[in-house]
Amino acid sequence: MSIYNYLVEKPNGEILSMQTYRNQVMLIVNTASKCQFTYQYEDLQKLYEKLSDKGFVVLSFPCNQFGEQNPENSETSAAQCKLQYGVSYPIFEKVEVNGEKTHPLFNYLKHEVDCSEFARHTMQQKMLFDHIQSHYPDYLIGRNIRWNFTKFLVDRQGNVIQRFEPDASMLDIEQAIQQLL
Predict the structure, then answer these.
(1) How many CA atoms lie within 13 A of 169 on its CB side?
(2) pLDDT of residue 122
(3) Per-residue confidence band for 35, with pLDDT thresholds at 50, 70 and 90
(4) Dihedral sign, CA of 171, 177, 179, 181?
(5) 129 pLDDT tier (thresholds 50, 70, 90)
(6) CA–CA distance, 40 with 50 (Å, rounded to integer)
(7) Checking phi first, is residue 168 left (phi over 0); if not, alpha (psi -120 to 50) or beta?
(8) Which domains, ranges and CATH numbers included, belong to the chain?
(9) Active-site positions?
(10) Is the distance from CB of 16 to CB of 142 less than 8 angstroms?
């Protein structure tokens, strides 16, 4: 199986093949409109603007599985991202990334790369870990996605190269992207 075998849906219902992004470096992200990491929409937009002419794209998939932090429907969510954060990269239909209804693309992504040990060095990391442990303990097991704004880096050949947890440094993410461009 390859990432290019998957179909994704835009908020308007249009079905798109991941083939659309063949030969591009992709950063695939599960996002949310009301999360402590929502500020990353702006960071992701800056990366997209800086690197899109070199064959880089951000693909955003809203998700409401973590604390119901994306309650809007997909169309409203996409419109808010464009209006509030100036997002111009593709935003897709809302998906689930864990559990029985996991979108096939995210099931594939999370099984292609291991997640790193959950860091608890900063107060933010400790608070997030404690929250997940008390409300969503299953998300800490195996390769589950732990929270909103988990990012998967995919190279031009469609190989899933790296997984970045929500609190990963954008500088580190940009360096990893640059190596693939």
Answers:
(1) 5
(2) 67
(3) low
(4) negative
(5) low
(6) 15
(7) beta
(8) 3-175 (3.40.30.10)
(9) 35
(10) no
